[in-house]
Design brief:
Number of strands: 6
Distance between the termini: 15 Å
Shape: elongated
Order of helices and strands: EEHEEEE
Helix content: 10-25%
Number of helices: 1
Largest sheet: 6 strands, antiparallel
Strand content: 35-45%
Radius of gyration: 13 Å
Number of domains: 1
């Protein structure tokens, strides 16, 4: 089975891109990886992020994570062949 390519982007509001890349895997694996990236950032900063309800519109997954002083957005979307 051929895997689709997915883009993962994690960015901070008012800041830049914290992590990004293209990977070949299933959509759900991309979602899991984006959440792992947010956990790594939280550990590094020593803060707790709370995830809002994720939205999925077709091949685009988006979830916003907030802490007391920052907001991180994680996006997973399919890369067109």
């Amino acid at each position: 089975m051929k895997r689709q390519r997915y883009y993962i982007g994690v960015s901070e509001e008012g800041g830049g891109i914290l992590a990004s890349g293209e990977y070949k895997f299933a959509m759900n694996s991309g979602v899991t990886r984006s959440e792992a990236i947010v956990r790594e950032i939280a550990r590094y900063r020593g803060v707790i992020y709370t995830g809002a309800t994720p939205t999925r519109d077709g091949d685009v997954y988006r979830r916003v994570w907030t802490s007391e002083d920052s907001k991180i957005t994680a996006i997973v979307r399919r890369v067109e062949p």
